[in-house]
Amino acid sequence: MPKITFKAPIQILGINPFVYVSAARASAIQPNWRKPLPVFVRINRKPGKKPWRINMMPIGNGDFRLYLHGEVRRASQTQVGDLVRVEVQFDTHYRNGPMHPMPSWFRVPLVRNPKAKKAWGALSPSRKKEILRYFAPLKSPEVRMRNLQRALRVLSGQRGRFMGRSW
After folding, report:
1. Most exposed residue of 9, 14, 44, 122, measured as fewest CB within 10 angstroms of its CB?
2. Does the predicted TM-score (pTM) go above 0.70?
3. Percentage helix, strand, coil, to 5, in the chain?
4. Per-residue pLDDT tens for 5-16?
5. 56 shares its domain with 112
6. pLDDT, tens digit, for every residue of 29-87?
7. How many angstroms separate the CA atoms of 100 and 47, rounded?
């Protein structure tokens, strides 16, 4: 797949630093793509060996934003306002759907709760993926149980906060 390289300033939208990617540049990466675009990214030639996997987010008219999380900015020693060298290549190995398996500590109680199970089935694939990604690093039984209870509560239709949002 072709790799494009260009220079652009790091901008900020709210609290989210990003690099603007024009429709022409995005089309050079993957023509006619209108949804989140999975790419491999290097900023100022960092990281050296294995580039980051990031989804460029569409903003209309074929333009995209390449959001740069903290790890990217730390490794590339960059901040908002800096002019950076951006290398972007389409991620041909990207597969849609959850990247993390559903942990048994969530799957078993979910299956036993018909209302929550039905709500889980109605969630968009991206929301399921977000929740499973959130669950993946949880190690301690206490933290898992607390998050399980919150998830089942909101999936069962009760009002509450889970994953930084109101449900």
Report:
1. 14
2. no
3. 35, 30, 35
4. 999 999 999 999
5. no
6. 999 888 899 999 999 999 888 899 999 999 988 999 999 999 899 999 999 999 999 99
7. 23
Domain closes at, from 61, 90, 119: 90
| Residue 154 identity | V
Buried b (16+ CB within 10 A) or exposed e, 103-112: eeebeebbee
pLDDT tens across 153-162, in order?
999 999 988 8
Spell out where 44-110 has E strands: 52-60, 63-67, 83-90
Tens-digit pLDDT profile for residues 107-152: 999 999 999 999 999 998 888 988 998 999 999 999 999 999 999 9
Integer distance in angstroms from the first to the last C-alpha of the chain?
41
Residues 6+ apart with CB under 8 A from 69: 54
- In which domain, by residue range, is 17 found? 3-90
| 63 within 8 A of 4, measured Cβ to Cβ | no
DSSP three-state, residue 1? coil
Residues 119 and 151 placed together within one structural domain of the fold: yes
Look at the block and give the residue holding tokens 């652009």: 8
